Amino acid sequence: MEHEQNIGIGLTHDETSSIDHTGLDFASVRADFPILQQQVNGHPLVYLDNAATAQKPNCVIDAIQRHYECDNANIHRGVHALSVRSTERYEQARLKLQQFLGAERVEELIFVRSATEAINLVAQTYARNCLSTGDEVLITELEHHSNIVPWQLVCEQTGAKLRIAPINDAGEVIYDEFVNILSAKTKIASFSHVSNALGTINPVREMTTAAHEAGAVVMIDGAQAAPHIPIDVQEIGCDFYAITGHKMFGPTGIGVLYGRYDLLNALPPYQTGGDMILSVSFDKTVYNEVPYKFEAGTPNISGAIGLGMAADYLMKLGMDRVLAYENELLSYATSTLSNIPNIRIIGTAAHKAAVVSFIVEGVHAHDVGTILDNAGIAVRTGHHCAQPVMAHFGIEATARASMAAYNTMKEIDSLAEAIREVVEVFG
Amino acid sequence: MSDLGDLYQNMILDHNKSPRNRRAINDPDHCAEGYNALCGDRVTVYIDVDGDVIKDVSFEGSGCAISTASASLMTETLKGKTLDEAKEIFQSFHHLITEGPVETNDASGLGKLVVFSGVCRYPARVKCATLVWHTVNAALDNNTKKISTE
User: Fold this and answer.
1) Torsion angle in degrees (nearest 10) through CA of A305, A308, A314, A320
2) CATH fold group of domain A62-316
3) pLDDT value at position B62?
């Protein structure tokens, strides 16, 4: 059964007023996301919680539905038509992700549940095997808990030491400190591409080069980068790179670990069971080739297909255009919010993704969140699973407005208006 | 603002701005610490009793307006009450926050606490209002384990 997949992309070359000079037709992008066409608490939904999870375009929703309506069968087994089709779609999705991340070989892409699982996989296979007492793992103060705790655990297991590169008051990793901590003892350096709490974009290429010069292997948590900035793992030069589907317009429960082929090949399996083996007897089991060695059990097939479609959607929008448009949203949001008395923006890095973390002086973030919700505006409030970042700034929590390609300047105005109401209620 | 007024009533805003009995009690008869992992709110409750009557009650900690006002009003409500009355008030308050006001709410002894009746329409905020009360309960049970609303 052939069905051309309609991507319904928000990108046209028509002369319409909604085409931003960055080339992104944001009104048309917006129309691709059905969930955005609703009212919340009597107001049009303003969804600014994209760093927590992003919404899904019709093409992704349709791809998942089509899988279950037309193609569903288990993959990599069975000779029947549906199994063949499911396998093809699953492997086509892997090819899309290869293209999206700029990987050299398709075998370098492993489907996992999430970026969290990707980091745990590397920690429990690569790191657990190579670390011993006296070795060091280097992370930064900027990390999400998911790029802290897996390393704490593997350090406990192996006797290695976890080192932390500090950040400055703008929320940027202090590059010189990062380099200073690197030494022959550093076996692994793991850092985020983009900070989830503050939006800081790290100079990952320079950091990777420095870590490699010290002899360390580099893991990058790209969960917050994937939907916002172009990624090219070969250009960055990293050894491992993790992304998650649901933050890049794909479904939940699916993510990708990129790993350099030679490294992946040398690793022991992470989980064992069906599909990750070539042959099993009670005397000896032969593991499958990469990437299948790391995909034990029936995977999230529809999730992978949905994620492949999401990657396709983003590539058709053009990540350069997405970045340019989101930069405009960011500078508008930053200047608009800065003009409100009693607002303090946390995280003022020179290079930022479209995230504005802020506090309203004297008002707890949860109260800010409730008043914004009352105006139909969704933001995240709390510590953003980055308590060390909050601790650096001496705060418990922030409200965080995180934008995506479908957000508009008008929505920033609605946000600002609702924040003024916060100030009024608590004034 | 009209909807928000149900939640952020003036009395709540006032107790948030000027919390009553926010102080420690030295060597208290009962003490417990509460923590809401979701938002990072922390509260410590101190209780001194005379027989089965609550002689003094206070709290320390930081949180949102709902949790701060809830702690402040808790101290005003419980001072002078018996331990059994305190437990009953906790039950009534919990019902108010999760299910909404009952018809004859003054019989439940809630008094000023009815100001929190709007919270039940904000499910995400229920824990903010109840954290301090769970902590009171733990303190009276001499439960030294850190209390979480999770």
Assistant:
1) 170
2) Aspartate Aminotransferase; domain 2 (3.40.640)
3) 84
